[in-house]
Each structure stands twice: as C-alpha cells, then as structure tokens.
Amino acid sequence: MPYVSRDIAGKVIGLSEDSADGASENLPASHPDVLDFLFRDTAGDRASSRFLASDLGFIRVVEDLVAVLIEKRVITFTDLPAPAQDKLLGRRSLRSYLSDVSGVFENGEGKII
C-alpha cells in the first residue's frame, strides 16, 4: 500500500513506498485517489479516457481475431467459456443492429444514427 502526498487542495501529488515527509497517509493501491494520480497525464488531466478509447479499439481486434480463428477452424465457438460466448453473441447482435439502423438520418455532412 503506497503512502501518498497531497497538495493544499487534498489532491494526491506523489506516491511513495515508505512513509516520508508529507507522505504519511497510507492508502490501498485501488483507492480512487491513487488511481486518479496514476492515470493523470503530464498536463494533470485524467488519461483514463485515452485508455478507454484504446481498450475499445483493442476489443474489436480481439473479436476479429476470435472470428478468424473460428473461421479457420483453429478453435470452435463451443471451445470458448459460456460467458465469452454470450458476450461475443451479444456484441455481434448489437453490431448487426447498429449496421442496420446506421445511416437512417443524414445531416448534410454524412450519415448519422
């Protein structure tokens, strides 16, 4: 559990393995203040939105990879655990639905949902 240093406003400004000057408060690594500090970028803004965008893009890569492995018969869909099957089917269904309704409206700059 890291020791945290805070500024006058109470915002975490540093982490330390040991108790030191200004770093006497001990918090679990999963504490929201610690996570906020860890995911802050150099401008002081939260970088978590960039991680989320990256994760969402990577999820699509994993979906496509699973689809290719199934298509090439490297694995079968039933080889996957039931929760993974449910998630893949749910995302496939959602993507199909969204592709059916996309472009229903036109705003002059392109298709929108």
Key attributes of the depicted protein:
three-stranded antiparallel beta sheet, two-stranded antiparallel ribbon, Tryptophan synthase subunit beta like protein, alpha+beta, 113 residues
**Separation, N- and C-terminal Cα atoms:** 46 Å
Which bin fits the share of residues in helices?
A: 40-55%
- The count of β-strands is 5
Judged by helices, strands and strand pairing, the structural class is alpha+beta
pLDDT averaged residue by residue: 80
Beta-strand percentage?
5-15%
Write the H/E string, N to C: EEEHHHEE
Low-confidence stretches: none
Account of the 3D structure:
The mean pLDDT is 80. The termini are far apart. Among the domains are: 3-38, no CATH class; 80-113. It has helices at residues 32-38, 48-71, 82-101, and strands at 3-6, 12-16, 25-26, 105-106, 111-112. Helix content is 45%, strand content 13%. 3% of the residues are buried. It has 113 residues and is of the alpha+beta class. The strands form 2 sheets. It has a 3-stranded antiparallel β-sheet, with helices on one face. Strands 4-5 form a two-stranded antiparallel sheet. It contains 3 helices and 5 strands, in the order βββαααββ. This is Tryptophan synthase subunit beta like protein.
